[in-house]
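Tokens as discussed.
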């Protein structure tokens, strides 16, 4: 196996050097001989930062644990091993009229990864996070025992494992509730908006009327066009396909170019072309992959950022300050001369996650992608962090590769509750960089018990 298979998707952090297969990790954990801070599960490497890395230890390749064990075609509950991809779950359940209630921007994430990161999608305002639909999970800890966890059994471990970034032990399998849908196809409507003020006027009504809502922002637009973009809304079509498409694109980036292809001139042309192509108001029926997973159609698209990779910054801010904070974040990026290839804005609703720590919370979330230009990019990201936390918001840990421990503490003030339940044999580069530094400064997790 090549090293790149065990690197984060942002390609800005070093690849894992020590990797063991899942079966070996299971045997080690059952023996009770796993050492402190030694292990971390690795799904399919779609996390952008170092939450999927354990630079001082070993990562566990979970992809061989990829069996679907059971599916109830009446209730839509599916049981699968942690290494199963969402694309496989979709393909298995679609002919019976079911689809995952929550999907992120790629179907190439594992079930275990979706749970560990408590991922969200375009319908958080209605369905909450992925964790809201987890019925149960089996967690193997370094005590050598497999713990069955649900909302009524081993509840603390259940809540800590959802959104726990793999730190509570090894998720072996899980059961999740899928959503019954009329078809896989989506009736998509695209509404252009002139500026952010118009977007905010449209957002709440769009959420009330639609299952899926997300906005694309032309981050490079200036002058009277500043803040313009497209609002995408969608609902499952009454009549359409119940067959999943092949889960791989025909296009692929075969190698990593020696420079960033997604530079400012390219982005200017791309944004103009994308806005022109997508600007329409009449609804149309589209396939689910194009609506939910547009970038999955180009394999290894992250290579286009060049050898230094990319950083993604995702923030969430309270609704009452979003009209001020979102423009401030976009303005900071523009002042820094940094162009974001994909700029996404959407509204989080009030559906609470069962997770102990979960990134989504009521308000608006903004996602920006930047090529890694070293100190200049890191300085910008630090400024974006500061704007976010000063507004009472949070920065997404599983999209992060460099936030400081102070930003993490401001984003997740109850981090010690996860540290108290963390399996001592499990550690990530992210947790070592943030929570463990906080612990060293402010005391141990016993205070959280």
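Sequence:
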């Amino acid at each position: 196996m090549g090293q790149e298979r065990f690197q984060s998707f942002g390609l800005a952090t070093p690849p894992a050097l020590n990797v063991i297969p899942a079966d070996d990790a299971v045997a080690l954990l059952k023996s009770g001989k796993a050492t402190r801070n030694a292990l971390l599960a690795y799904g399919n490497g779609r996390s952008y930062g170092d939450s999927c890395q354990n630079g001082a230890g070993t990562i566990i390749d979970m992809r061989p644990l990829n069996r679907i064990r059971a599916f109830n075609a009446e209730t839509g509950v599916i049981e699968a091993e942690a290494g199963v991809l969402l694309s496989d779950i979709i393909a298995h359940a679609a002919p019976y009229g079911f689809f995952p209630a929550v999907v992120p921007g790629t179907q190439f994430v594992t079930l275990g990864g979706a749970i560990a990161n408590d991922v969200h999608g375009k319908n958080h305002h209605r369905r909450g996070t992925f964790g809201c639909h987890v019925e149960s999970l089996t967690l193997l800890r370094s005590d050598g025992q497999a713990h069955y966890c649900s909302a009524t059994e081993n509840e603390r471990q259940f809540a800590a494992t959802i959104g726990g970034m793999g730190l509570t032990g090894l998720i072996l399998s899980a059961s999740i509730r899928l959503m019954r849908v009329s078809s896989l196809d989506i009736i998509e409507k695209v509404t252009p908006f002139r500026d952010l003020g118009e977007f905010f006027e449209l957002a709440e009504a769009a959420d009330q009327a639609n299952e899926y809502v997300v906005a694309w922002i032309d981050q490079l637009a200036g002058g009277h066009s500043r803040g313009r973009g497209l609002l995408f809304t969608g609902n499952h079509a009454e009549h359409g396909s119940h067959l999943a498409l092949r889960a791989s694109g025909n296009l692929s980036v075969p190698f990593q170019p020696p420079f960033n292809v997604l530079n400012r001139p390219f982005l200017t042309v791309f944004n103009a072309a994308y806005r022109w192509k997508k600007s329409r108001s009449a609804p149309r029926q589209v396939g689910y992959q194009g609506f939910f997973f547009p970038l999955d159609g180009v394999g290894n698209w992250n290579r286009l950022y060049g050898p230094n990779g990319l950083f993604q910054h995702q923030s969430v801010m309270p609704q009452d300050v979003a009209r001020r904070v979102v423009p401030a974040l976009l303005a900071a990026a523009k002042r820094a001369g940094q162009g974001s290839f994909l700029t996404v804005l959407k509204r989080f609703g009030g559906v609470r996650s069962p997770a102990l720590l979960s990134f989504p919370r009521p308000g608006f979330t903004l996602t920006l992608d930047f090529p890694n230009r070293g100190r200049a990019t890191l300085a910008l990201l630090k400024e974006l962090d500061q704007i976010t936390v000063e507004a009472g918001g949070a920065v997404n840990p599983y999209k992060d590769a460099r936030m400081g421990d102070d930003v993490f503490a401001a984003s997740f003030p109850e981090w010690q509750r996860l540290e108290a339940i963390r399996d001592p044999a499990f550690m990530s580069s992210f947790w070592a960089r943030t929570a463990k530094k906080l612990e060293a400064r402010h005391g141990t997790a016993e205070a959280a018990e």
